[in-house]
């Protein structure tokens, strides 16, 4: 018994480890991500009936062979589609032989009745057809799970009756909650007929049990695409935030550009208005006469006050002016009067220049009337310097 049990345990552990390793490599290309080694484990407890099928089956009948059985199992779902488990079942089977056995319990109908206290331990490979065909659903109510396995069958208190056994079955799972399932397990096993000391072929055990399964965390599986989406989510969020920030920055830049364009347009408009205003010809001053004492070219304080005001106007309007100086034709020689007229014009020009008027905007000209003027104009025209626009 110890050797067979040891081998069964070794094979069960090897199946779980190899399946886990294989499933881990499946992370890159498979549809589902395998959870950690300690996830998706389960334990189950169940009970029901089983029957020993062997020699003289027809003579003894099935009804006499049905006995109660109990079982316990633990295992792991490697992926949503396949998993492994190790199960141990115990029962006190009834067999009938033509000859007595170490478990002899009397005779019935001419046959020796044996009551064999046995343990059936086996490692199983399970295939969830519901998930394989219909896709994985964590909340599916019913799942159809066939399985195959092998292990050993040992008679308690009789070390020599230990035989290898091969089994297969159908596990029906009914979901109660995230952690709890109800199961109905229909299975059978075959082993050497020498288990009960007699026969040359194979005997078997058939069982129907029901029980509860508790699933440990983590209980569910995730698709690779879901994991990738979860891993990418923070980066997508950052990218969206960056896009939003970029859009906000662009909007702010566009607004600033619009405001700048509006300001530039306003400045251009103002500059155009100033240029247009500056381009307008300034109003020219009315001719201004400066009178002199006969025979002189000296400015009086009154004349200087008048010329101060005229200088400010001339500087502002931008026009050019001519200053005409005159002398009295009735007195003095022509030569003297010509010089005196020019001198009077120069005196007015020089004074205006001293007040900030550009010299090139002023032309000083001495004039001498060739004809006699009426007497009433002599004082105004013959001893005067006139400033007027060209």
Architecture overview:
The chain has helices at 2-25, 57-60, 129-134, 224-279, 301-317, 334-354, 375-381, and strands at 32-33, 41-53, 66-77, 82-97, 104-108, 111-127, 142-155, 162-175, 180-192, 202-215, 222-223, 288-291, 321-326, 362-367, 384-389. The protein has 390 residues and is an alpha+beta fold. It folds into 3 domains: 2-220, Beta Barrel (Porin), CATH 2.40.160.20; 224-280; 288-389, OmpA-like domain (60s Ribosomal Protein L30, Chain: A). The strands form 3 sheets. An 8-stranded antiparallel β-barrel has the order 2-3-4-6-7-8-9-10. A 4-stranded mixed β-sheet has the order 12-15-13-14, with helices on both faces. It has a two-stranded antiparallel ribbon with strand order 1-11. It is rod-shaped and about 190 Å long. It starts with a helix and ends with a strand. Residues 19-30 have low confidence and may be disordered.
Q: Secondary-structure element sequence?
A: HEEHEEEEHEEEEEHEHEHEHE
Give the N-terminus to C-terminus distance in angstroms. Answer: 139 Å
Beta-strand percent range: 35-45%
What's the number of helices? 7
Radius of gyration: 63 Å
Q: How many distinct domains? A: 3
List low-confidence stretches.
19-30
**Largest sheet geometry:** 8 strands, antiparallel, barrel
Q: What is the CATH top level name of the largest domain?
A: Mainly Beta
Q: Give the helix proportion (percent range).
A: 25-40%
Structural class: alpha+beta
CATH architecture grouping of the largest domain: Beta Barrel
Output mean pLDDT.
81
Shape: rod-shaped
Number of strands: 15
CATH topology of the largest domain: Porin
Instruction: Write out the strand line-up for the largest beta sheet, numbering strands in chain order.
Output: 2-3-4-6-7-8-9-10
